[in-house]
Amino acid sequence: MAHAVCHTSKLLGTYNPSKLVNLVAPEDMDNGGLLTYTALAEGEMEAFTGVKPTGSETIDQVVLVVAPELMKDEHLKDLHDFYIEAGQIVRGYILNVGDEFELSVEGFDAAPTVGGDVKAAAAYKLSTSGSGTTIGKCIATVTRNGETFYVIHVFG
């Protein structure tokens, strides 16, 4: 099963650590997934309990989850083989208006269209239809090593 790949080079949290939060992943999930949080995880001093979004949150309650792609199995070389395991402490990027990130198609419930909204719904993946918290818009596609990534601009 291929997993999502996320590039975070244009997120404020990449340069400003106050826009990052540590979270405990509640289930196996892909990079580029979404979580919310409210309380510190049991026994942790800096990591919050990650919770699946409901779709009714405000944008400042939703974080983009990305962990460094460290493979435990030395035979796995492709970034699409990487996923976040349940219970792993991961980095959450607090989204800010003007942020941009790139996400492979596996990070969405359906492939987005350029100009279309992307939302946090009742799932870890970004949604391209239905109701939910609007995160931003797909503003472009880029191709890296023959693979299409969707550029998401956070509007809030």
Tell me what you see in this structure.
This protein is 0% helix and 41% strand. The chain is mostly beta strands. The protein has one domain. It has a 6-stranded antiparallel beta sheet with strand order 1-7-11-10-8-9, with no helix packed on it. Strands 2-4-3-5-6 form a 5-stranded mixed beta barrel.
Helix and strand content put the structural class at mainly beta
pLDDT averaged residue by residue: 91
Low-confidence stretches: none
- Distance from first to last alpha carbon: 32 Å
Largest β sheet strand count, sense and barrel closure? 6 strands, antiparallel
Give the helix/strand layout.
Layout: E1 6-10, E2 20-24, E3 33-40, E4 47-51, E5 63-66, E6 89-94, E7 100-104, E8 117-120, E9 126-127, E10 133-144, E11 147-154
Parallel strand pairs: 2-4
Antiparallel strand pairs: 1-7, 2-6, 3-4, 3-5, 5-6, 7-11, 8-9, 8-10, 10-11
Summarize the structure.
The protein is mainly β.
Features:
single chain; 156 residues; mainly beta; 6-stranded antiparallel beta sheet; 5-stranded mixed β-barrel; 0% helix; globular
